[in-house]
Amino acid sequence: MSRRLSFAPLAAAIGLGFSLIAGSLVAPTVARAEGEIRIAEQFGIVYLLLNVVRDQHLIEKYGKQEGIDIKVDWTQLSGGAAVNDALLSGSIDIAGAGVGPLLTIWDRTHGKQNVKAVASLGNFPYYLVSNNPKVKTIADFTEKDRIAVPAVGVSVQSRFLQYAAAKQWGDKEFNRLDKYTIAVPHPDATAALIAGGTELSGHFSNPPFQDQALANPNVHVVLNTYDLLGPNSPTVLFATEKFRNENPKTYKAFVEALTEAAQFAQNDKGAAADTYIRVTKAKIDRAALLKIIDNPQFEFSVTPKNTYPLAEFLYRVGAIKNKPDSWKDYFFQDAKPLQGS
Fold first, then answer.
1. Which top-rank group of organisms is this from (predicted)?
2. Residue range(s) defining the domain that contains residue 268
3. Both 148 and 118 in a single domain?
């Protein structure tokens, strides 16, 4: 009989590094004047731009150029559902999550809070990995398997899995594999997959966790998101229209900070790796990390790429009710408009 899932000790044992700081999300707060911004990020290299912004105090730098002192609050969460709830409750101002959670909350708030994306965090392939040698494709998963995702049915990993299922079995079967998914933070899911011995046999991951898992000879790639959609921006930052409109200087400082961080990370991968280790305190070898982010398929950029196919798919299968005409419908168009897709 398989053992019950228990992930936290495993993560600690292999030193993946994992902290969940949610104390500031206990209760919503009222709207504030210019000069304060609360940002929620999740786990992985895909959030490296935020690590750079934090490490170099770039929001504060650009705030001073706007004539204000900005207080920045950082929070780490796991899963798009938790991030979306925090944004709608007023506990955070900037949400970091996948395109899946973005499209869910954009649809949910359409004509109300009007949540839209601020920018992309870059283009990265995400892997669905497994330690079950019988699982070569998504068609090989059975009721005996469990697939870890950050948030069931909402995370971009869940949406990618649905997209793949629709390609495999047709749109009517898009949620065919949902019953096998469970919500587990990336560090814990990686630890469990490497250790084995639990019901967890799959993990729809992101870097560096997917790379750490694949270092184990028992783990292999089942699905690569670049094979599904081509190069794409899986992770984005989003905010409410209210925050953007009522805090124009703070919002502008954030966008400028993010743009500088993207240029820094893309142009100096070594310094970007050092920043990631310093800010996240991740127990990862620098050379191994640099090898990951020096992948030519990685691009640190605020410009969204190839997000619309997923949006169109979610509308087509009824997962969202409002059909965006293009990616510009769910991204804010600022003074320096993004040239994305």
1. Bacteria
2. 36-124+232-329
3. no
